[in-house]
Amino acid sequence: MKALKHLNKYFYKYRSRLIVGIIITIIAKIFALFTPRLVGASINIVSDRLDGKITEAVFKNDLTINILYLIGAAVVAGVFTFLMRQTIINVSRFVEFDLKNEIYQHYQILSLNFYKSNRTGDLMNRISEDVGKVRMYVGPALMYTINTITLFAVAIIYMIDRSPSLTLYTLLPLPFLSVAIYKLSRLINKRSTIVQQSLSTLSTFSQETFSGISVIKSYGIEPSTTIEFEQLSAENRQKQINLTKVQALFFPLMILLIGVSNLIVIYVGGMQYMSGKIDNIGTIAEFIIYVNMLTWPVATVGWVTSLVQQAEASQHRINEFLNTEPDIKNTANQLTPVEGYVEFKNVSFVYPDTNIRALNDVSFSIQSGQTLAILGKTGSGKSTILDLIGRLYDVKKGSILIDGTTISDLNLFSLRESIGYVPQDAFLFSDSIKNNIKFGKEDATDEDVIEAAKNAKVHKNIMDFSKGYDTVLGERGITLSGGQKQRVSIARAIIKKPNILLFDDCLSAVDTETEEKILKNLEKLTKNKTTIIVSHRVSSAKNADQIIVLDDGKIIESGNHDSLINRDGYYKELYTKQLSEKEM
Ligand SMILES: Nc1ncnc2c1ncn2[C@@H]1O[C@H](COP(=O)(O)OP(=O)(O)OP(=O)(O)O)[C@@H](O)[C@H]1O
User: Fold this and answer.
1) Is 253 exposed, middle or buried (0-12, 13-18, 19+ CB in 10 A)?
2) Residue of minimum CA distance from atom 23 in ligand 1
3) How far is the CA of 295 from the centre of ligand 1 (A)?
4) Which of 185, 444, 470, 566 counts the highest number of beta carbons within 10 A?
5) Residue 343: closest CA among 372, 382, 315
6) Domain spanning 3-322 has what CATH number?
7) In this predicted complex, what is the ipTM?
8) What range(s) does the ABC transporter domain occupy (predicted)?
9) In the chain, where are the structural domains located?
C-alpha cells in the first residue's frame, strides 16, 4: 500500500464528494435490507392466515401495506444506488484525469536521456493502462468495500435479531467463498496480464509493419510478415482461451456456494422451526434473501483484494517515472531574454549513454546577428553543437555562454523561446500544414504563415494541394516529399522570428537552385539574428561570416569562405569537388 499513498492528495482533494458518496452508500444499503424483513413479514402474514390466526380483511390489508413498503424501499434503494455510482465512480474518473495530467506534465519536463532509456510503449502504458488500474482502486474497489462493510454491518444486526445460531450457520460458507474468489481473481489477473502482453506484441508488430509498409513491399516480404502475424495471432488466441477457461469458473463457483448456503439455511432453519427455536416460517425466507444479498459483496472482498494489489503494482510503476528528476533543470526563476551572442569555451562533450566523445575541446564565438556555418564529415559532432546550444544536454567540461552568461544560469524557457530549430529529420504532426507552421507561434495570422512559407520557398507547393494550407498531413507527414517537409519545418522556425536560428542540415533534400533561393531569403530574414547552419554543402556555408570545419569532434579549420579556399584543407577539397560536380 506504500505506493498508493501517492493518491492520498487526490482523496483529500475530493474529500467532500467521497464523504457524500459514503453517506449515500449507507442509505442505499439500509433501504435495500428492508426487503428481506418485509418478505419475511409477508410470509408470516400468509402463514397466520393459513393457520386462521387473522381474518381475510386483516390479511389483505397487512399484505398490501407490506407490498407498498417493499416497492418504496426498492425505489429508494435503487435511487441511492444510482447516486452512489454517480459520486464514487465519478471521483475515480476525476482522479484518473488528474493523475494522467500529472504524469503527462512530468513527461514533458524530463530530459532527452529519459526518452532514450525508456521505450515509447512503456511511457504510453504507464499513462493509460496503469492509470486505468489505479482508477479501479479509487473507484470500484473503494465503492465495493464501503458497500460490503455497510451491508454486513446492517444485515448482521438484523440477522442476529432474528436468530443468532442461524446467522452463524448462514455465514459459515462465506469466508470460503471470499478466499476462493480471491485465488480465482489472481489467476484471472495473471492470465489477463499475459493476454495484454501478447496483445501489445501484436499491435507493436502491426504498427511497425504499417509504418514500414513501403520497405516491406519493395523487398517483397509480405508473405513472411503475414506468416509472422498469423503466428503471433495464434499465440494470442491460445492465451485468450486460457483466460476464458478460468473466467468461466467464476460464476459457477459463486452459484455453487450460494446453493450450499441456501441448503444450510433451509436445512438448519427448517430443523430450528420444527424444534420451535424460531417462531416464524418467514424467518427462513428472510435468511435465504440475506444469503443471496451477502454473497456478491463477500465475493467482491476477494476481487477487491486483487484489484488493490494490481493498483499497487501499477502505482509503483507510475511513481518510478514521477520520481525521476529531469537532468536539465531550470535554475533561473526570472525570465532572461536572449540577444544571441554565443560562445563555446573549450567544450568537450561525451554522450552519457554511449560514452561517445562527440566534441573535443571546441572553442568559437558568434556575435549576435552573425552567421556561422559548420561543416564536417558525418558523425563529426555538428548536430551535437546545436543540441548543446538548445541545452538538450549539459556540458561537464568547458563552458557555453550566451550573451556572456553561462547557459545553465539562463532561464530555460527564455533560452528555448529565443531559438528557432530546424532538425535534420523534420518531424511534422498529423495536422494541417497551417497548424504545423503555426506550431512555432500559436498566435500567428494566416498572413504570417503564408509569408513564412514563401520565405521557405514552399508556398507554391502548398498551393498546388487542393486544400492548400488546410491539407492534413498523414502520420509523420507522409504526403509531403522530403524537401517539402524540410521547407515546412524551416517555415515553422522562421515564423517565430527568434534571435537564434539553428539549421541542422535542413536543405539536404532540396535542389541547389531552391537552396540558393531559400538562403537568399534567410539572409534578409536573419540580418540581425544569430544563425548557425550545419551542412555538408559548401553552397550553404559560403556566405557565412564564419565557417568552422569539424573532424572527430575537433575544429580543424576556421575562417571565412575566402580565407578557407586559399588554404589546402577539407573545405577547399570539398569546394573543388562540389564545384566540379556542379559543372558536370
Ligand atoms: N543522442 C545521442 N546519443 C549518443 N550518441 C550520440 C547521440 N547523438 C549523436 N551521437 C554520437 O555523437 C557523435 C557526433 O554525432 P553528431 O550527430 O553530432 O554528428 P554530425 O556531425 O551531426 O553527423 P551527421 O552529419 O551525420 O548528422 C556520433 O558519433 C554519434 O554517433
Assistant:
1) middle
2) 379
3) 64
4) 185
5) 372
6) 1.20.1560.10
7) 0.95
8) 342-577
9) 3-322, 334-418+532-584
